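Annual report, structural modelling task.

Input specification for the zinc ion complex:
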Amino acid sequence: MHGGLWICAILLGTSASVNERMTVSICTWGHLPEADVAAGENTAHSLFHSAGIDVKWAPCEAGLEGDEAAQQHWFTLRLRDGESFIPAPSGADRTLGEAFLSEDGDAYIGEVYYQPVQALAEAHNAEATVLLGYVIAHELCHLLLGGKHSQQGVMRAAWDSSDLARMNRGGLKFSPSESARMRRVLKGTGAH
Ligand SMILES: [Zn+2]
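The model returned the following structure:
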């Protein structure tokens, strides 16, 4: 009898937690295979899903701008087939992606560079489309939470070969704190 009640409580608890939502318009610049873009979106989708966030993917032309984009949590990511125009500091790794942050917090545009993504994946025997998904997720997290990096996980400033191996196994996730802060931003109750 007690067992039955307990199971019931768990089910109620699960159904009460509603995921937060955001929309992401993907714009491809250059020659990016559609299947690779879709695979990258899938990887990013599951990462956010496990953080309690549902991502709706939208076409490039549907994207919003300025205040409206920020208010509706509608982000735009440009996927380029080349390199960043902003050179990486000497000695640093090639830039995989960038989030364009603003002082007033209305950040909604990011870029991902597929050529260095493919090169890094190849160098570590990793799947380029999986890495693409992680870069998409990393830049979207910057747009939500700002420019800070973490010591480990999805929000590390640079990933090493063990991170790439964990990505391939699906074992690299947002931290519980990052997930909670992103959900708070999307809910409109602030990141802190
Ligand atoms: Zn970063």
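The chain has one domain: 20-187.
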